[in-house]
Write a structure and sequence with these properties.
The chain is of the alpha+beta class. It is built from four helices and ten strands. The protein is globular, with a radius of gyration of 16 Å.
Amino acid sequence: MIGNDVIDILQSRKESNWQRKGFKEKLFTIEEQLLISNASIPEIMVWVLWSMKEAAYKVYNRQTKIREYIPRKLVCSIKSENHNYITGQVICSENTYHTKTFFSENQIHTIAVSFLADLNNVMEIERKSSILKDENNIPYLINSSSNTMQNVSKSHHGRFEKVVTIKTVN
């Protein structure tokens, strides 16, 4: 299963004051707050962690069909970091989701999957017209030639939209 989240950094600066009193405490665990305060650019770490939580929540929601506001129950950890991306994990209700976050000066994009190996098989979908949502508002890609449905994750914020799926390996 797959989830993703994209953040337009310029839009987030207009919409949210992450430095206001209580913001970090409401959304992040003590350990995550330490990651933010120790980061070279704390603002970017705020949105990396938020993006990880959002992407993992989409997988959790697809699995459980439960819709709830639980940012502090989605516990993030960073596994590796380089100049192009960050890998991590998000744990929620005994489920572990594996994440990969790409960032540039304009956007942050996180992909979350249930199985670590699936991170290597993610592809972005350009043709978005074949995407439908079920009764739980969960998106699927409809393949009319094979009459099948494929899990996708859709995210948009500001100037950016991302739709991703896991490539089927034959």
